[in-house]
Amino acid sequence: MKKDLLHVAIIMDGNGRWATSQGLKRTDGHKEGGKTLEKLALHAKKLGIKYLSVYAFSTDNFKRSEEEVNYLMDLLIYYFNHKLKKVCEEGIKVVFSGRKENLRKDVLEAMQSIIESTKNNNECVLNICLNYGGQEEIVDASLKIYEDLKQGKLKKEELNRETFAKYLYQDLPPIDLLIRTGKEKRLSNFMLYQMSYAEIFFSDIYFPAFDEKAFDEAIAFFYNRDRRFGNVKNNN
Ligand code: FPP
Question: Most buried by CB count within 10 Å: which residue of 17, 43, 187, 201?
Fold first, then answer.
């Protein structure tokens, strides 16, 4: 793996539409999406990608029906307690980004248990964004910065884009490649701070059908991009 693809992020969209297209219930789409995530996490590790961030549940997803929200929360618990076992055994460290409030106690416990059981893993990091919003993350970071400035733990002159990033939910490198499955072309309040120079790959494939081959195509797209980070192309 070339050095410049360190952090890949995925907006796992299209679970519901995939299920409907197969004559199944929306919730079956989430279940199948979980299997896809497990496969992709192992595949990304095999490719040498050190950080994988995924959007599992946004702060706005609470607007969905109570039945769907509860199903998703039960599914997440099942994954954290059982299904991600292979992911853990493969040396992947699981961390979470998002707000704790509004999450059920049993969800918080399952999150804590997978954090504990993978905390010493050091092959790569799977960052699961749960009850997450990108603007909310920036607001929460600003509040922590305000407190540290007030208490003298941080000086105004020390604040720059790197130090600001340390106040985000997790200390992660910038996102190099964002993949959004499921046809839509928007960012949906996902990791806005970390995404400033990300290459963006939109796929028409619904997430449950997004397999290793599709992932490889996204990676190939990344390596074909000419990344300039605001600089000009060097023609020499
Ligand atoms: C978006 O599809 C997907 C979600 C809101 C949930 C993503 C969750 C999983 C893949 C389950 C497993 C996750 C983990 C972390 C183990 P959608 O419901 O918005 O689909 P639609 O746009 O077709 O309605």
Answer: 201
Which pair of tokens denotes residue 162? 């790197």
Q: Which atom of ligand 1 is nearest to the CA of 130?
A: 15
Pairwise CA distance, residues 208 & 216, whole Å: 16
How far apart (Å, rounded) are the C-alpha atoms in residues 127 and 10? Answer: 10
pTM tops 0.85, yes or no:
yes
Cα 161 to Cα 8, 60, 166, 196: the distances in Å are 20, 27, 9, 11
Q: Measuring from each residue's beta carbon to the nearest atom of ligand 1, which residues come in under 6 Å?
A: 12-17, 30, 33-34, 37, 56, 61, 75-76, 79, 128, 182
**Residue 20 burial class via C-beta count within 10 angstroms: exposed 0-12, middle 13-18, buried 19 and up:** middle
Which domains, and CATH codes, for the chain? 7-133+174-223 (3.40.1180.10)
Tokens 């909310």 appear where? Answer: 136
Whole-angstrom Cα distance, residue 102 to residue 78?
19
Task: Express each pLDDT in 108-159 by its tens digit.
Answer: 999 999 999 999 999 999 999 999 999 999 999 999 999 999 999 999 999 9
Task: Reply yes or no on whether the pLDDT at 236 is more than 60.
Answer: no
Distance between Cα 20 and ligand 1 center (Å):
13
Ligand 1 centroid to residue 232 C-alpha, Å: 38
Of the chain, the end-to-end C-alpha distance in Å amounts to: 26
- Name the strands in the sheet holding 51-58, side by side, starting at the edge strand that comes first in the sequence: 92-97, 124-132, 51-58, 7-11, 177-180, 199-202
Pair 121, 89: CB distance under 8 Å: no
